[in-house]
Write a structure and sequence with these properties.
This protein is of the alpha+beta class and 250 residues long. It is 38% helix and 18% strand. The protein has helices at 2-22, 31-47, 54-68, 81-111, 159-162, 175-180; strands spanning 117-118, 124-129, 140-150, 155-158, 166-169, 189-194, 215-226. A hairpin with a 4-residue loop joins strand 3 (140-150) and strand 4.
């Protein structure tokens, strides 16, 4: 079901592309049109993970136009469900590998800078400002400001831009953060270059973080507190659904 929904979202966006190719650029005017445009923009961000060729875009748009227009499709669509899943997997894997390669190159360049170091796990870092006192443990709650970008400088998340510090258990975030923050002290600031295997892996965190992406964080540590005894929820872009409590037997 998830695969079908994804395909539908992507092909809807491609229909907009196909229509635009036949005419002039559509200028959005009303709030409703702007909303529709925003939907298309979000689909486009997800589409980028497939790195489709221009011909593939045209073919995909043609399939949607034929089906949506009530025309007979050129193939029997139901027979291609397995191929669709294989196509998605192949395309995303290929794109992920290309992104990983660029990430490795960037990490190597970063390590040539004065003060840059690399840990056994593959995490690269540089202390921007020395702190004082203790370093956090994985079970501690840290209060920080952070600024996260892709290697091309695209900002995907930033408490600095929001103007509000955040607190969370250090062992409830991506591995690169858990390891990296233990390398600094209160009052300190660190730059982390986190390879995908220590971040969001091959799946990424769509639509802002593509699969295989190396992430860059500038993090300033303000305070450390012991975590409460009760287990804290994991910090994630997609929080896990709560499990229903088992019913008591009568």
């Amino acid at each position: 079901m998830k695969q079908i929904t994804t395909v539908f979202l992507l092909t809807t966006f491609l229909l907009l592309i196909g229509c635009q190719q036949k005419g002039k650029k559509v200028e959005v005017k009303t709030d409703e049109e702007k909303t529709v445009y925003a939907i298309g923009a979000m689909f486009g961000q997800r589409l980028s993970n497939l790195a489709l060729t221009e011909r593939e875009l045209q073919i995909l748009a043609q399939g949607l136009q034929d089906s949506a227009g009530g025309k007979k499709t050129q193939i029997e669509v139901a027979k291609y469900q397995r191929e669709i899943q294989a196509f998605f997997k192949k395309k995303m894997s290929k794109n992920s590998e290309q992104i990983k390669k660029k990430g490795k190159d960037h990490l190597a360049k970063f390590l040539s800078e004065p003060g840059a170091k690399k840990t056994a796990s593959g995490l690269a870092y540089k202390i921007i400002k020395e702190g004082q006192g203790a370093s956090p443990k994985p079970t501690d709650v840290v209060e920080v400001h952070y600024h996260g970008t892709l290697i091309d400088g695209t900002v995907f998340d930033s408490s600095v831009e929001r103007g509000k510090k955040v607190s969370f258990p250090l062992n409830r975030v991506i591995k690169g953060w858990t390891e990296g923050l233990q390398l600094t002290k209160v009052g300190g600031k660190i730059r982390l270059v986190i390879p995908s295997e220590l971040a969001y892996g091959d799946n990424g965190a769509p639509p802002k973080i593509p699969g295989g992406a190396t992430l860059i964080f500038d993090v300033e540590l303000f305070s450390i507190k012991a975590a409460p005894k009760a287990a804290a929820p994991k910090v994630s872009l997609k929080p896990a659904a709560k499990k229903a409590a088992p019913k008591k037997k009568k």
